[in-house]
């Protein structure tokens, strides 16, 4: 589950991480009010207006701008709120901006040179351990840094039995070329950041940039946080931060009825039980010349109602030219799935007018075949996996 920048910073601040302070606003008037309050609290003269959407590269799309007066705050906020922000991480249509973060200016000049760093905390899947990835090249796309100057990217792998050790935090500060007060501040920053990552059960923390300010404070200027959805039952307060306006509407609807669904750009709808079989089904569709239109796992307890809901969700995608149902009846019974297919056809009528290929194997497969054969439906049945894929290829030809 992705969070907005201001929500991520709330989490960081709760663990003692120093952040670029700011206030959220949904109208230009609220933005001016927030800027005045921020000036009183922090003394900042200029303000940074940041679009709050679930996408990186906001600055490149005009979603991050500096305001040097209250008039600028009102004008810029009015331009950003309501715009469809297009960034390298959005579709061509962009994302609608519903709110902006009015943030303090932390780049004020001083005796010490301001520096930007990159830092993220994530799981190293190869080693099964968390790691901190960091670089002296803050403020840049980390993909560009990895491609052009890979020697400037460092990693620190954390032993889960011991957690982040003091010497590791100091090594990070040393590799970033820090000394004196900034060195000490960075070691504290790293430790608190890692505690926040573990404590919130997150899948990703990305702070780009981490700023060494002119007073040598270490500050999280930006913040991207992705929470582990499997752990949200432990964090009801964090779950409440979900902004469904930023998510695919069809995926939101599927989640509401208990379906594991991911929207894709393709022409063959998939309905499968089990994530592994779903991935294999998508691969076979690809090899047969088709393109998967979705990932859809109806789960191990699929009943007729859930199968009917799955069909409705698949057919919301007007690009679907065929549907492949590939069910292995282990826990789920094939006759239940067959009944769901029949009920869906009766309920949806002409809306379910694309070719349907069905492969049901396992528990009560014979009963399922009999149900479908006696339903009068125009369904192409298959027994073998490859046979199902070949039938998909034929209907797309």
UniProtKB/TrEMBL annotation:
It comes from the Bacteria. InterPro entries: ATP-grasp, ATP-grasp_succ-CoA_synth-type, ATP_grasp_subdomain_1, Succ-CoA_synthase_bsu_CS, SUCC_ACL_C, Succ_CoA_ligase-like_bsu, Succinyl-CoA_synth-like. This is Succinate--CoA ligase [ADP-forming] subunit beta. GO terms for biological process: succinyl-CoA metabolic process; tricarboxylic acid cycle. Heterotetramer of two alpha and two beta subunits. GO terms for molecular function: ATP binding; magnesium ion binding; succinate-CoA ligase (ADP-forming) activity; succinate-CoA ligase (GDP-forming) activity. Keywords: ATP-binding, Ligase, Magnesium, Metal-binding, Nucleotide-binding, Tricarboxylic acid cycle. Succinyl-CoA synthetase functions in the citric acid cycle (TCA), coupling the hydrolysis of succinyl-CoA to the synthesis of either ATP or GTP and thus represents the only step of substrate-level phosphorylation in the TCA. The beta subunit provides nucleotide specificity of the enzyme and binds the substrate succinate, while the binding sites for coenzyme A and phosphate are found in the alpha subunit.
């Amino acid at each position: 589950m992705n969070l907005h920048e201001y929500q991520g910073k709330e989490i960081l601040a709760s663990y003692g991480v120093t952040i670029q302070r700011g206030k959220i606003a949904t109208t230009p008037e609220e933005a001016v009010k927030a800027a005045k309050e921020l000036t009183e609290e922090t003394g900042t003269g200029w303000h940074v207006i940041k679009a709050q959407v679930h996408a990186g590269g906001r600055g490149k799309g005009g979603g991050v701008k500096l305001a040097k007066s209250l008039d600028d705050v009102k004008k810029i906020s009015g331009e950003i709120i309501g715009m469809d922000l297009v960034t390298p991480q959005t579709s061509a249509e962009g994302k609608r901006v519903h709110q902006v973060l009015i943030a303090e200016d932390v780049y004020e000049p001083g005796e010490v040179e301001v520096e930007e760093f990159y830092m993220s905390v994530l799981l190293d899947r190869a080693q099964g351990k968390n790691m901190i990835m960091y670089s002296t090249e803050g403020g840049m796309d980390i993909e560009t840094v990895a491609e052009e100057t890979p020697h400037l990217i460092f990693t620190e792998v954390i032993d889960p039995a011991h957690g982040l050790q003091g010497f590791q935090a100091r090594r990070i500060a040393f590799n970033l070329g820090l000394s004196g007060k900034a060195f000490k501040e960075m070691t504290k920053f790293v430790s608190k950041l890692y505690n926040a990552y573990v404590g919130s059960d997150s899948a990703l923390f990305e702070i780009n940039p981490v700023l060494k300010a002119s007073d040598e404070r270490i500050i999280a200027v930006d913040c991207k946080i992705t929470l582990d959805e499997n752990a949200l039952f432990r964090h009801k307060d964090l779950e409440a931060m979900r902004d469904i306006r930023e998510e695919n509407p069809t995926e939101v609807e599927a989640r509401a009825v208990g379906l594991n669904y991911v929207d894709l750009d393709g022409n063959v709808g998939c309905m499968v039980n089990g994530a592994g079989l779903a991935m294999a089904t998508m691969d076979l569709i690809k090899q047969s010349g088709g393109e998967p239109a979705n990932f859809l796992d109806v789960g191990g307890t699929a009943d007729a109602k859930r199968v009917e809901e799955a069909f409705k969700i698949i057919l919301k995608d007007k690009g679907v030219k065929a549907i492949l149902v590939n069910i292995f009846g282990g826990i789920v019974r094939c006759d239940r799935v067959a009944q769901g297919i029949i009920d869906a056809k009766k309920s949806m009528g002409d809306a379910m007018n694309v070719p349907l290929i069905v492969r049901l194997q396992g528990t009560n497969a014979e009963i399922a075949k009999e149900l479908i054969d006696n339903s009068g439906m125009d369904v192409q049945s298959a027994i073998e996996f490859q046979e199902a894929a070949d039938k998909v290829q034929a209907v797309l030809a």
